[in-house]
Amino acid sequence: MALKSTIFKAQLQIADMDRSVYADHALTLARHPSENDERLMMRLLAFALAVPADELRGRLEFTAGLSDTEVPDLWQKDLTGELVQWIEVGQPDDRRLAKACSRAERVLLFAYGSSTPIWWQALAPKVARLDRLTVWQVPAEASKALAGLAQRSMQLQVTVQDGQIWVGDGQETVDFEPRRLMPA
């Protein structure tokens, strides 16, 4: 018998002063049986950092993700169905990123985990020509701390100012500064 996804609900308050994005979002996320809390929270963080200020060019949405290897973790499609944003979390290979860049106007990658520097050293030369790609590294300590905030029902506040990010649930706060790997 196949395992089912676990449903998480998140009330997300975003105050991104760097992009002038201020909004509340009621989100439902499905955690694939092979996904851990750290990856789930990285998808939620990616949403908070990439959600557009308005929906004139479509909504940012979670996809089937791990259940479907042909789609990213999140995407934004305009009203004609064209991909505006393709967003990945983790450490995908160069072929996947090249495919994403050929399909979407903008590709964002939020890499995390202690092995990110080693993975990036091998990947960087292979993706240097992908001008639609932006890569951010979230410190391993921060992604692990974010996993500690995961609950089936969450109320989170995300604040971004001068490149610094604070994620809190009213009891605990995780603060960090992601490192931009590409473009340098």
UniProtKB/TrEMBL annotation:
<dbReference type="InterPro" id="IPR011335">
    <property type="entry name" value="Restrct_endonuc-II-like"/>
</dbReference>
<dbReference type="Pfam" id="PF07152">
    <property type="entry name" value="YaeQ"/>
</dbReference>
<dbReference type="InterPro" id="IPR009822">
    <property type="entry name" value="YaeQ"/>
</dbReference>
<dbReference type="InterPro" id="IPR038590">
    <property type="entry name" value="YaeQ_sf"/>
</dbReference>
<protein>
    <submittedName>
        <fullName>YaeQ family protein</fullName>
    </submittedName>
</protein>
